[in-house]
Amino acid sequence: MQSPIEVGVLGATGMVGQHFIRFLARHARFKIAWVGASDRSAGKKYRDATAWRLDGAMPASVADLAVEECKPGNAPKLVFSAMDASVATEIERAFAQAGHTVVSNSRNHRMEADVPLLVPEVNAEHLASLAIQKANRGWSGQIVTNPNCSTIVLTLALAALKPFGIRNTVVTTMQAISGAGYPGVPSMDITANVVPYIGNEEEKMESETQKILGEFAQGAFQPHPMGVSAHCNRVPVVDGHTEAVSVDLSAAPSEADLIAAIDGFRGLPQLRNLPSAPPRPLIYMTDRDRPQPRRDVERENGMAVFVGRLRKCPVLGYKFLCLGHNTIRGAAGAAVLNAELMESEGLLG
Ligand code: NAP
Predict the structure, then answer these.
(1) Which of 13, 87, 97, 287 has the most Cβ atoms closer than 10 angstroms to its Cβ?
(2) Do residues 141 and 37 share a domain?
(3) SS3 for 316?
(4) d(CA 335, ligand 1 centre) in Å
(5) pTM value?
(6) How far away, in angstroms, is 225 Cα from ligand 1 center?
(7) Which atom of ligand 1 is found nearest the CA of 50?
């Protein structure tokens, strides 16, 4: 049996940090050995520094760890980052410079020209950009990012349709409250209501989708040449982003062709049987009123995307619904799967 790989979590006390702690505490290969946060928390035990807000108890294996400041030095070589975006740029760079692999959930480096924005089933080959990153920056470490929570759900579904030539897509999201962190959207705004604005979310979905579905060729990312239009809404759902998608394809597949492509979609994580990989990353649901966040989002450990209601769209060709767990597949689970892929590629040193 292989010995565990020690990992650290930057921003371990925050909402996404807690999701990392919960996800990693039961991980087969990674072992939490270090937790970092701001100087407000440093020096305290994790249990005292953290207002634990997830279902279930704080993992006992982490509760007594001493929180450290987010400075490279004592942390393990592999760190997951869930830091506040206002500080993530400089701190993540400092860790990479000091030789750490930073697998980040923050938005700060996602769109940089030498940073992979990774969805392991979709664009594992983008890891080749790490060689350019090393040459450009002179770091002995590296930074890899995962996309925004709503983008991951969309790109997984679109990846299955890419062989049919995606020209344009229009997506309307119904995004869970947990995506806004804690305390999130005021209850007076979200109770029995829809809030049709999430700051910068539409721009992120549009640009990140093109980068992820694009190629890394001749040392540069080539965005996928497709139009993406996103409408993002916050709805009174606790967990699970639901997305209504219309697509314009250059080929003329039948509905059966598309459903077969969705159901048959697999990536490197499945081929390599990575610990957090769902056996099927996309699951097509045939009931006409599914997927639904309350009924479906926790299935497959929150790591699969559920697709349903594929039908003709009189404007763009086809339309369908997809659903994914925003804090698991859209955040902590996504980053952990990125690290698992990197380990399987021999990229963790
Ligand atoms: P959060 O609850 O406010 O947590 C922020 C974390 O950053 C805390 O651990 C905090 O430590 C730490 N921090 C703050 N200032 C710091 C500093 N100067 N040095 C080091 N650490 C510092 O935020 P969140 O909702 O978890 O979001 C974290 C990141 O994930 C953000 O970049 C966000 O955009 C991204 N994200 C969030 C979600 C979501 O669902 N919430 C989804 C996707 C991505 P203290 O406890 O000591 O203050």
Answers:
(1) 13
(2) yes
(3) coil
(4) 15
(5) 0.97
(6) 33
(7) 46
